[in-house]
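Need tokens for this chain, all 347 residues.
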Amino acid sequence: MSSLQKAAAPPVLTEPAARRTSGSAYLRYGAGKVGGAAVSLLAVLVTGFFLFRLIPGDPVKTMTGGRPVSAEQLAAYRREFGLDLPVWQQFTDYCGKALTGDLGTSYQFRAPVLDKITEALPNTLLLTGTAFVLYTALGIFLGTRAAWRHGRLGDKLNTGLALTLYSVPSFWLGLLLIIVFSVGIGPIPGLFPTGGMESGGEEGFAYVLDVAHHLILPVITLVAVEYGQTLLVTRSALLDEMGGDYLTTARAKGLRDDLVRRRHAVPNALLPTVTLVFVNLGRTVAGVILVETVFSWPGLGGLFYQALSVPDLPLVQGLFFFFAAAVIVMNTVADLVYPLLDPRVGR
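Here are the structure tokens for all 347 residues:
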């Protein structure tokens, strides 16, 4: 080989050098995603502060419960909660405290916002976490079967039902289930509680059964409304993969259709579904406001609705930031997982 050909030839990376290049590319990719998430969190912090100050009403007057209060007492309340300060000063104080983990003190509960979130979070995770596991598994299972039997009666029925339930408002479906299965209608007796998390007075295993009894209707509501999205995304991704030559090759080798689907098609079609799963996982932490409100479930969603009606500005802002942060963090985790599932991502 001439010296000119050697100069023109591309450098050949040894295996350690190739690994270093791949590792540095992933680090740059990950740093970009984490930096974007940090900017998004800052934007949420700013937006939440100004957005909820557009809500009409005076939180101080609401806290007095309509009792006759003198102007001096109202002024004292405003000083106590810092509402007498200029908006720019309230904003800088809020941001400074938020960066240290202090989300303020609730007006109506007179307790730290973070404590109220920590108190209600387990209840939300119980409800939405149970529903998340069920509707994710159901959506992926039915989505893969619908795609593999594309155009058949089962596919049409599955897709039609998923689209119908996905378009139904969750609060409307929840109210309908309460009317039919809690209050009772016609020959159907009232089988389930109308709301709440427990009946009270139960202990031990009886308490567990009581909570599970209260859990059934809200979980059914969430599963019915949410599983369709996972089904449709999984079905669409799998349909895109089904024309691949590698599937034809796998069938030509004598593999059964079930094995071809499980070992080859489904793993390659899961990338869009992974995105959806992580987004839904973030929403699981955030809770479902309407469903928790309809069923009087004592979680973060019900707490947000209660705070919004005052308005309890520190609690509303804290919950809004917490909800958004959960989704942003889960999205970032999904982005960081992508290159592990598909090495082409992040290059």
